[in-house]
Amino acid sequence: MIVRNPDPDSRLPYLLKVPLGAGLVFRTAGTWPRTTALYCHPVSDGEWPAEPEIVEQVPVRSCVRRGAAIDLVLDRARENRSQLVFTTARGREAVFWQSARTRKQARPNVRTPTARAAGIAELEIAVDSHEQYPYRFAGQQVRTVRRALPCGDYGLISDGRLVAAVERKSMADLVSSLTSGKLRYALADLAALPRAALVVEDRYSQVFTLQRVRPATVADGLAELQVRWPTVPIVYAETRPLAEEWTYRYLAAAHTWAADEDAAITRIGPQITDLDRAPAAPGPSTAEIRAWARAHGHVVPDRGRLRPEIIDAWHAAHPSAPARMPPPT
Fold it and tell me: What is the mean pLDDT of residues 45-73?
């Protein structure tokens, strides 16, 4: 049984009840693992509402625990087999709800390379401060900084300018933002940059397996956006790890392009180039300055406005950073 989560502050909008033993209850992000494995948070029976708003209720053919997983088979013709897998993620216990399709997508039987992209010893990537579960680029030579980006989730800053950005989307987020109209504005913002792209953590074929929206509507919408903004490619990277790898390689290539463009301007002389369209890099976030200050022995409050001398000290230690001050929080 799937019901609405009555807690308005929870990021997991559904409650799932599995008929194992006295019944197991989980908070979850979706009603079925169609395109990706769903994170589930175990909760007590007390969180189950007295008058639940039922979203879906399906008879169960089989519900058996096998080791660290629960095999769940529903009594319906399609989308009937799934697993609840108890594992650890980043050192914490976690439960993921997966189907045979999502498990295959999570393990595409490829190994991403560890060679440096474009030979760069350490690439600095700006990660938008609104990104909740950002790429870590753990297997690559990358240093990340968190700051609010005007567009995109991952950006490349060169000589104080935002020269490239990548917007990341899961298939569910892609469809949601497309049908709501938000994706149109996101691509328009990306098109204003010298280099930008949209990477999707899934295969294009999954568009035609959608159940709650007409696949033709989504396919037509994506085609129309690509024609309207041809300078922002939409790349389908099959899985999240491959999308992360593609983002790293793309931004590294943009770094090399920006350096070559500057070198050409120096040799040939001033001229109008794509770099002229690059906006000033966004200033540091309050959280970034606060973390730096504590690491260097400054006493700062946990919340609220930072003292001007702390901001001045950060800029003195980062002379090439934008001079714009972060807004108070």
Answer: 90
For residues 198 and 312, the model is more confident at 198
Query: For residues 114 and 20, what is the distance between their CA atoms, to the nearest angstrom?
Result: 43
What is the CB-side half-sphere exposure of residue 245 using CA atoms within 13 A?
Answer: 15
Rounded to an integer, the average pLDDT of 111-124 is 82
Give the percent of the chain with pLDDT over 90: 46
Alpha carbon distance 82, 170 (integer Å): 20
Which residues, 6+ apart, have CB-to-CB distance to 190 below 8 Å? 151, 152, 165, 167, 196, 197, 198, 229, 232
pLDDT tens, position by position, 201-229: 999 999 998 888 999 999 999 999 999 99
Q: Which residues contact 22 (CB under 8 A, 6 or more apart)?
A: 45
pTM: 0.61
pLDDT of amino acid 99: 87
Residue type for 297, please?
A: G
- Residue 299 is classified by DSSP as -
Q: Where are the alpha helices (DSSP H) in 9-141?
A: 100-106
CB-neighbour burial class of residue 192 (10 A; exposed 0-12, middle 13-18, buried 19+): middle
**Which amino acid makes up residue 45?**
D
Give yes or no for a contact between 295 and 287, defined as CB atoms under 8 angstroms apart.
Answer: no
Q: Which residues, in sequence order, are bridge partners of residue 64?
A: 71
Count CB-CB contacts under 10 A for residue 108: 12
Q: Given CA atoms 214, 215, 218, 221 in this order, what sign does their dihedral have? A: negative
> How high does pLDDT run on average in the chain?
86
On whether the CB atoms of residues 12 and 68 are closer than 8 A, the answer is no
H/E segment holding residue 92: strand 92-99
Question: Which single residue is written with the structure tokens 């058996």?
Answer: 64
**β 69-74/60-66 pair status:** antiparallel
Angle between helix axes 182-191 and 215-228 (nearest 10 degrees) is 20
Torsion angle (degrees, nearest 10) of CA 60, 65, 66, 67: 150
pLDDT of the residue at 328:
42
Q: How far is CA 157 from the centre of its chain?
A: 19
